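Hi support team,

I submitted a single chain yesterday and got back a structure, but I'm not sure I'm reading the token output correctly. Could someone confirm the output below corresponds to the sequence I sent? I've pasted both exactly as they appear in my results page.

Thanks,
R.
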Amino acid sequence: MTVRERFLEDGYVILPDFNSDEACDALMARAEKLSREFDYKGHASIFQTSEQTKTSDEYFLNSGGNISFFFEKDAFDENGELRNDVFHSLNKIGHAMHDLDVVFNDFTRSPQMKKLAADLEMEDWLVIQSMYIFKHAKIGGVVDVHQDASFLYTEPASCIGFWYALEDVTIENGCMWAMPGGHKTSLRSWFKRKEGGGTEMEMLDESPMSLEGMIPLEVKKGTCIVLDGYLPHYSKPNTSGKSRHAYAIHTIDKKAYYPESNWLQREMSNVKGF
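Hi R., thanks for writing in. Yes, this is the structure output for that exact sequence:
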């Protein structure tokens, strides 16, 4: 089967040795440098998949076209001080590093990514979002079961994600879980801007997303996992002594309708493809 045929059948495809160790190391070094240079005073924003509608703030809502930093939920003590240094307290960086930073741009728009996009017949797709996910040892938080298309809604549906393992990924350090063929389902929810401010999760289908049949996607450093926007997936907390750094981008079809009520908004003329 071709890469595209496997992707259409399973809703995801795993591509080992997609990026070199050197490219992964360069991205991790860049993320650490950006993190250590970040002055969080007055800009502390916490990211939780299950509570984002409650914790959404202007910093989060303006992050679509910026390089923004988000902390783990337990990063601060009762006095509002960090329990650890900034770098080891972060959950992720988002959401436009791929356009604003040369190292992230080069990784995102590598020759192998251009070829993969062509193999998937993504001739006119835009890279609308990027995320650097830390998943630090001992504190890396859970990512609840979700569909990426809930956060990047288009008509017709077009969201495709690319998830890159920058370190070895195991069950112990919080690998992704998904079910082959699980994308052949309905979109359950739409995370959107709420009239009057903030965000809300609009339910489109009340059917629960079952974890039955999901398998761990344990992969080696340098692997790329392509994800259909409708594929339910999740990851458990990292309780191990090894970090699980990863980088992810999300793409949409340029021809699809992208609503102004989507939480992530950018000047679309600045959004580019591969």
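A quick pointer for reading it: The chain has one domain: 3-258. Let us know if anything else looks off.

Best,
Support desk
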